[in-house]
Design goal:
By secondary structure, this protein is mostly helical. It has 2 domains: about 55 residues; about 55 residues. It contains 6 helices and 2 strands, in the order H-H-H-H-E-E-H-H. Strands 1-2 form a two-stranded antiparallel sheet. A hairpin with a 2-residue loop joins strand 1 and strand 2. Helix 1 crosses helix 2, helix 1 crosses helix 4 and helix 5 packs across helix 6.
Length: about 140
């Protein structure tokens, strides 16, 4: 009988040893656990690259950190880097080229408007309409009740 060969050390696929693996993990959680559209997740990760890098460098337990970072990014209000900014009494929607191309593609269907601006307006209104039932259940102090 021969001797049993030594098992070779193998790298686990969930090791998160590199920053790219960590970033991909956060992206996956944003999309699959938090329901964020992929294009928005990419935009968030680009805008928060410094935060991600710092978290990756500081974190000892990267698997646990992965969940914490994804939750932070999913619920963190987006300040100046956001798509919407206020100009006097108006809200201005600024989109990158990828989003503009998608809005244009939707406009070609005619379902939400005839041009990207009308589509963006319709989608923004529909988004607001989805949270109005929640707003109706809040009291004057913003608490459920």
């Amino acid at each position: 009988m021969g001797t049993k060969p030594e098992p070779k050390p193998s790298k686990k696929t969930d090791d998160l040893a590199t920053f790219d693996e960590f970033r991909a993990g956060v992206s996956y959680l944003l999309v699959h656990d938090h329901g964020m559209p992929e294009i928005v997740a990419r935009d968030v990760l680009e805008g928060e690259a410094e935060y991600l890098e710092q978290a990756f460098q500081d974190g000892a337990d990267r698997k646990l950190l992965l969940t914490e970072v994804a939750e932070e990014l999913a619920f963190k209000p987006r300040s100046d880097r956001g798509w919407i900014r206020k100009d006097e009494d108006h809200l201005l929607l600024e989109v990158n080229e990828r989003v503009r191309a998608l809005l244009d593609r939707i406009a070609k269907t005619g379902l939400y408007g005839g041009n990207p601006e009308e589509v963006a307006q319709a989608l923004l209104c529909r988004g607001i309409e989805t949270v109005l039932p929640v707003a109706q259940s809040l009291d004057a102090n913003g608490r459920f009740g």
